[in-house]
Design goal:
The protein is mainly alpha-helical and 87 residues long. Helix content is 77%, strand content 0%. The chain has one domain (25-86). The longest helix is centred in the middle third of the chain and has 31 residues, at 26-56.
């Protein structure tokens, strides 16, 4: 199960998960691409919050919440890839 602590970690995880896309049906692939866009948007928000954390020299509540939301989306994304591969 993948988890991120910083926004830059998403790039590596994204590439690893996209390796499984070649074996998926087109209908599932479209849904996964939409999920990927949502995760990318949330990771962008996480990156913005990281900047604020660096300014304040501590982890902000918004950063922690956004990071947890990203990790939840990544877990769901990973499950959907697994389910799609099994179909």
């Amino acid at each position: 199960m993948y988890k991120i602590s910083k926004a830059e970690e998403w790039t590596k995880i994204d590439l690893e998960l996209k390796q499984f896309f070649g074996h998926l049906p087109p209908k599932i692939l479209r849904d996964l691409i939409k999920m990927n866009k949502n995760i990318n948007n949330k990771v962008t928000q996480l990156s913005i919050e990281e900047i604020e954390c660096r300014r304040q020299h501590k982890a902000t509540r918004r950063f922690l919440e956004t990071r947890d939301e990203c990790n939840a989306l990544i877990a769901t994304y990973e499950k959907m890839i697994t389910i799609g591969a099994l179909l």
